[in-house]
TrEMBL record, chains A, B:
<keyword id="KW-0805">Transcription regulation</keyword>
<keyword id="KW-0804">Transcription</keyword>
<dbReference type="Pfam" id="PF02365">
    <property type="entry name" value="NAM"/>
</dbReference>
<dbReference type="InterPro" id="IPR036093">
    <property type="entry name" value="NAC_dom_sf"/>
</dbReference>
<feature type="domain" description="NAC">
    <location>
        <begin position="6"/>
        <end position="171"/>
    </location>
</feature>
<keyword id="KW-0238">DNA-binding</keyword>
<dbReference type="InterPro" id="IPR003441">
    <property type="entry name" value="NAC-dom"/>
</dbReference>
<keyword id="KW-0539">Nucleus</keyword>
<protein>
    <submittedName>
        <fullName>NAC domain-containing protein 19</fullName>
    </submittedName>
</protein>
<dbReference type="GO" id="GO:0003677">
    <property type="term" value="F:DNA binding"/>
</dbReference>
Length: 195, 195
């Protein structure tokens, strides 16, 4: 799906309910996604370091902020449709490149305006095995993963529910941001050679 | 111009620069506005009470909030293209129905990303002559008015610069909100008969 160019001044800032109702439910029913800023990507597997997954796309914009201590931070957000990597009907593999997407919260239900459960979301972070250098260089990655739940799973669902929508945020702050800016002037440090 | 229906999840939240560059400058050059959430309205004149001007349009959505004291407030925002009501080449009439749009700030310049002045904005509020009941009933009205300025006025401008874009916010809070909600169950109180 190519990037969708909007008229100037529009921002894609969907509510949880909009993501479930208008995007994820449509996909589960075999409908094409509405034209939007959501990209389709594989987020799991041996080569799925998040910085590699998104190296060829740029539908996200950088936000730069300064907190009250004048510490500079940068943040990017992207919306992704992906398939979960299932090991069995109940088990999911979260392995992604040299690390994994690690759950930070249990599933939190999403209700529609009538109070009926239509989906759920959970938060995950990208974590490598004991190597803090990699995330210092490549930024801190947070994922909010949206799944169908409640009535969305019983109302005419034709396809197996492997699809999720992820809101992924990549951020750098303080010293790590300096590392990022220095990195542009030096060689790329990969996952296999963190030092 | 009919209301523009966007795909779900998109919000019209233009930056000052986007309003000037992609909307107001285009209009001044005689181009049609890009399809957007901006409506065209007359905001000045004997019959231009803001609640009457917007009685037939609803491109704005209500936001309800509670502050830390649990005081409920409601707010709506709309973007409007309008012509200023000029009395002479330098004087503007701000009369609108039973009140006027009263300037609260001088013009603040708007720069593009290269630091060059492209426009200016000022803040106004709607004020009636000593009758606080009217705004209690019809809400508190704030306007941010965007005008061309600097290079936008010299680069090939063909038309007289009477057009402005206004971001108008209408809000109710606390007791005034109760009056609004009670009003739905009683007669409409007009400007001429505030009591």
């Amino acid at each position: 799906m190519s990037e969708f160019i909007m008229p100037p001044g529009y921002r894609f800032e969907p509510t949880d309910e909009e993501l479930i109702r208008f995007y994820l439910s449509e996909k589960a029913l075999g409908q094409p996604l509405p034209r939007s800023s959501i990209v389709e990507k594989e987020l799991y597997g041996d080569n799925a370091n998040p910085w590699d997954v998104f190296s060829d796309t740029n539908p996200w914009k950088m936000e730069t902020k300064f907190d009250k201590n004048e510490t500079k931070s940068k943040k990017k957000t992207i919306f992704v449709l992906t398939k979960l990597s299932k090991i069995s009907s109940k088990r999911i593999s979260r392995k992604a490149g040299c690390g994994l997407w690690d759950g930070q919260t249990g599933a939190i239900t999403i209700n529609n305006s009538q109070g009926i459960i239509i989906g759920s979301k959970k938060m995950l972070t990208f974590r490598t095995k004991g190597d803090s250098n990699v995330t210092k260089i490549h930024g801190h990655w947070i994922m909010h993963e949206y799944s169908l739940d409640g009535v969305s799973l019983i109302n005419g669902l034709k396809f197996i529910n492997d699809n999720v929508i992820c809101k992924i945020t990549r951020s750098w702050k303080g010293k790590d941001l300096q590392v990022l800016e220095n990195r542009k002037r030096s060689r790329t440090i990969s996952c296999d050679h963190p030092n």
